[in-house]
Amino acid sequence: MTQVQALVFDVFGTVVDWRGSIAADLGAWGAQRGIACDWAALADDWRARYQPQMQRVRSGAVPWTVLDALHREALEELLPKYGLQHLDEADRCHLNRVWHRLNPWADVREGLRRLKSRYVIGTLSNGNVALLVNMAKHADLPWDVVFSAETFHAYKPLPQTYLGAAHMLDLRPGELMLCAAHNDDLAAARAQGLRTAFMPRPTEYGPSQTKNLGPEQDWDVVASDFVDLAQRLGV
């Protein structure tokens, strides 16, 4: 572990509570506007379209498209289901940009502050750059660098995302650690030679979550949260 020079973090689910944030943000907005909706269910349906949309880009079925645009495409499909097809363009833009306004889990800021004292810390996310930068400002996330799928025109788990981050930091893969709450993301990173740290987020998908409740491989570090990760890395 002494070789690790930098930590990069998956963001959606690992750093921020996307489901709870969307339900709270849009719930408050809807209450002000007199718009009733099951916002948590909308968040779930929205997120369910995430991997299929990115796979169309990965496969070359559609050209490179940033996540904001994929989110908007999915939102347009969902509006009639939730009785929101009457919303005007300004409202639709506001809803789509909720992904820029996600809030971190309670342990994140303290853990990142401690980790930043020793390591370079940054994102390695499928979110586009504008989304990640705006989220960092909103949530007070102290990144040194923002790596995005947009940086490499490749969505995780394509190898060029993991190797691209190491290359841009002038590090060997083994000097970079991916920190994530998702076993599949860590497996893809490990396959490219990165070190790995797992922290579970057992309520990412709500109270009935059934996956990523624990480590599925012998990751280099398994921690309960970001503060515990900092302690296990000696900071």
From TrEMBL:
<dbReference type="InterPro" id="IPR051540">
    <property type="entry name" value="S-2-haloacid_dehalogenase"/>
</dbReference>
<dbReference type="InterPro" id="IPR036412">
    <property type="entry name" value="HAD-like_sf"/>
</dbReference>
<dbReference type="InterPro" id="IPR006439">
    <property type="entry name" value="HAD-SF_hydro_IA"/>
</dbReference>
<dbReference type="InterPro" id="IPR006328">
    <property type="entry name" value="2-HAD"/>
</dbReference>
<dbReference type="InterPro" id="IPR023214">
    <property type="entry name" value="HAD_sf"/>
</dbReference>
<protein>
    <recommendedName>
        <fullName>(S)-2-haloacid dehalogenase</fullName>
        <ecNumber>3.8.1.2</ecNumber>
    </recommendedName>
</protein>
<comment type="function">
    <text>Catalyzes the hydrolytic dehalogenation of small (S)-2-haloalkanoic acids to yield the corresponding (R)-2-hydroxyalkanoic acids.</text>
</comment>
<dbReference type="Pfam" id="PF00702">
    <property type="entry name" value="Hydrolase"/>
</dbReference>
<keyword id="KW-0378">Hydrolase</keyword>
<dbReference type="InterPro" id="IPR023198">
    <property type="entry name" value="PGP-like_dom2"/>
</dbReference>
<comment type="similarity">
    <text>Belongs to the HAD-like hydrolase superfamily. S-2-haloalkanoic acid dehalogenase family.</text>
</comment>
